[in-house]
Amino acid sequence: MSADDADRAAVAERADSSAEADATGAAESVIDLAGVTFGYTATPVVEDVSLTVESGEYVAVVGPNGSGKSTLMRLMLGLLGPDAGTARLFGEDAARFDDGERIGYVAQQASAAQDMPITVREVVKMGRFPYLGLDRLADGALADGLADDPVRTARWAANVVSGRLTAADWAVVDDALATVGMSAFADRRVGRLSGGQRQRVFIARALAGEADLLVLDEPTVGVDAESVDAFYDLLDALNDAGITVVLIEHDLGAVVEHADRVVCLNREVYFDGPTEEFVESDALARAFGTEARFLTGGAE
């Protein structure tokens, strides 16, 4: 099977799983903010923000520098607690949410990532770490396996307890690498990759963790234009396959081309709705002021 065929098969498999979930119940609210206000000082950075992100949506958050976009993202993920209002993640208080494998986070390019002395496959396998340990033995597989094949099951249990990945875990890692088109780079040091390739690796890590929500904070900063196009094509495919995408982005052209919904923020929400309506609205001018340069990729 070619790399392209593997990519398509991996994405198609995730799409089938998503369709199954849709058939069994209504869409789940992934993020739910109600009247959220937060400030690092007495002055609010985010003020009275209410929004809901449903399962399977592709939402872009835009706004000028200092508008509170990254702070809003931290509130969504429970990394900050609101001064007023409520923030819920998958139906739970965001600050107390502890099912971290459901969330994949891709930050802006960082120099630390370039200096990591590990390979691509080693980064991606980190996505499997939440599934290791004693919790994996609590699902009945241990008792059933000991009855059917005690020797092999005992070896499997020893690997789980010691934190070693099983063959099934490595298969998930390899599938994630194939999905983002990085299989050929599995043994390469992360520091020897381009910026766009590194971002693909961090998405693969999220996929290996079987994340339902992918949050990206200006992930294409410092990435060349050709790689940016391929990166957004990948996000489109993952969203089509059922992953919820929340993107903080300064490139308004990319937002309009790829996102289904736009939240325009400058401390408060100036717009929240379909991308087509955002293009026709005056929200951009109100939020960005005279510095707005729409669809140029240089809005900030």
UniProtKB/TrEMBL annotation:
<dbReference type="InterPro" id="IPR003593">
    <property type="entry name" value="AAA+_ATPase"/>
</dbReference>
<feature type="compositionally biased region" description="Basic and acidic residues">
    <location>
        <begin position="1"/>
        <end position="17"/>
    </location>
</feature>
<dbReference type="InterPro" id="IPR017871">
    <property type="entry name" value="ABC_transporter-like_CS"/>
</dbReference>
<dbReference type="InterPro" id="IPR027417">
    <property type="entry name" value="P-loop_NTPase"/>
</dbReference>
<dbReference type="InterPro" id="IPR050153">
    <property type="entry name" value="Metal_Ion_Import_ABC"/>
</dbReference>
<feature type="region of interest" description="Disordered">
    <location>
        <begin position="1"/>
        <end position="21"/>
    </location>
</feature>
<protein>
    <submittedName>
        <fullName>Metal ABC transporter ATP-binding protein</fullName>
    </submittedName>
</protein>
<keyword id="KW-0547">Nucleotide-binding</keyword>
<comment type="similarity">
    <text>Belongs to the ABC transporter superfamily.</text>
</comment>
<dbReference type="InterPro" id="IPR003439">
    <property type="entry name" value="ABC_transporter-like_ATP-bd"/>
</dbReference>
<dbReference type="GO" id="GO:0005524">
    <property type="term" value="F:ATP binding"/>
</dbReference>
<feature type="domain" description="ABC transporter">
    <location>
        <begin position="31"/>
        <end position="292"/>
    </location>
</feature>
<keyword id="KW-0813">Transport</keyword>
<keyword id="KW-0067">ATP-binding</keyword>
<dbReference type="GO" id="GO:0016887">
    <property type="term" value="F:ATP hydrolysis activity"/>
</dbReference>
<dbReference type="Pfam" id="PF00005">
    <property type="entry name" value="ABC_tran"/>
</dbReference>
